[in-house]
Amino acid sequence: MQGTLLAWHIYEITHDALYLGLTGLAEIVPFVLTLFVGGLAADRFHRQRIMLAAISGFLLISLMIYFLVASGTDSAGLWKLYVLIAMTGICRGFLSPAQNALLGQISGRKQLTKAATWNSAVFQSGAVIGPATGGFLYGMIGPVHSFLVVTILISISVLLILGIRGIKAPAQQNQTESLFERLGKGVAYVWTHKLLFPAMVLDMVAVLFGGLVAVLPLFADQVLHTGPEGLGWLRAAPAIGSVLVSAILIRFPPGKNAGRRMIIAIVGFGLSNLLFAISTSFYWSLCLLFFAGMFDSYSMVVRGALLQLFTPDEMKGRVSAVNSIFIGSSNELGAFESGLAARFMGLVPSVVFGAFVTFASTGVAWFRAKDLSQLDLSQGES
């Protein structure tokens, strides 16, 4: 919800694609700078408590955004919103590794593939409800009261984290290693892994160049001629497709040929975005974003299962941090790239260019990353 609300609020103030792209850059820099410390913390300290502290930080930031918007924001005061967005990046840098590592800690190995699928489904359910609700609320009750709803929902999430029981701090490993040695082990593990590294790079390229979430307000306004309610549906359509695929994969987890299907799914993701770029029909655009979400969800589930199955528990925080740099940060860098490309290449050509970069990356993966294209996840099913 907050992402949709901020995007439309900033666009109403500036009517400039570059400022939308800057929202991603404002979050990505502190996020990346914090991630490795957050990953190390997740491998040494109580993961649930790290999550609680990070989400409490989100709550405080959301309250400040609410008061800032309530007091009136113009172009001169826009920098304050970017500062608060940057603060969310710091919180995410601690939350993301702890959350991913905790999933493996509470699931047995035979349930990890299904656990990763459930995790994706629940996340995408929030991603369906949030953007659509944010767009509707913005149009119906305005930005101020909409941001207040966000703070209430985050307060509920804090209570839910407090309700988790039976979690212990991870087992401590070699205590003589220096800080940089412990951090380096996570990077080295991913860099030398025949499955994790190509999967992360492939997904990063697709999200970095193929994503178009940051410029959806421009498509909504300039191409599809709809308002914040329409933007909410455009933001929600990929997540609805993701939830559908996640629900199917809960019943039928990815098994044999998972890697090959993942590569094909990323091709489908790029093709959906390419067709969306040249569409002028609102409902056809919704369908294409729906298909993009379906393809992206399959890739997300396979990558999540890979991380859980092929990473030792004592390293999951650091490996999750590396994964977040590849994937999580590429969302914000992708937002910046989308805004920048739309500003200088034009809105439609920038999305077309991103789609062809996605096609090129999948071609390289198909012929060069043989271990990934032949991946079999059937041993991870319960």
Plain-language structure description:
With 382 residues, this protein is an all-alpha fold. The chain has a single domain (2-166, 180-380), classed as MFS general substrate transporter like domains (Growth Hormone, Chain: A). Helix content is 81%, strand content 0%. The chain is built from 14 helices and no strands. The protein has helices spanning 2-14, 17-44, 47-71, 78-106, 112-162, 179-192, 196-210, 216-223, 228-251, 258-277, 282-309, 316-345, 347-368, 370-373. The longest helix is centred in the middle third of the chain and has 51 residues, at 112-162. The radius of gyration is 20 Å and the shape is globular. The model has no long low-confidence stretch (mean pLDDT 81).
Protein traits:
382 residues, mainly alpha, Growth Hormone, Chain: A, 14 helices, 81% helix
In CATH, the architecture is Up-down Bundle
CATH topology: Growth Hormone, Chain: A
Morphology call: globular
Oligomer: single chain
How helical, in percent, are the residues?
A: over 70%
Gyration radius, in Å: 20 Å
Question: What is this structure's SSE topology?
Answer:
Layout: H1 2-14, H2 17-44, H3 47-71, H4 78-106, H5 112-162, H6 179-192, H7 196-210, H8 216-223, H9 228-251, H10 258-277, H11 282-309, H12 316-345, H13 347-368, H14 370-373
Helix pairs in contact: 1-2, 1-5, 2-4, 2-12, 3-4, 3-5, 4-12, 5-9, 5-11, 6-12, 7-10, 7-11, 7-12, 7-13, 9-11, 10-11, 10-13, 12-13
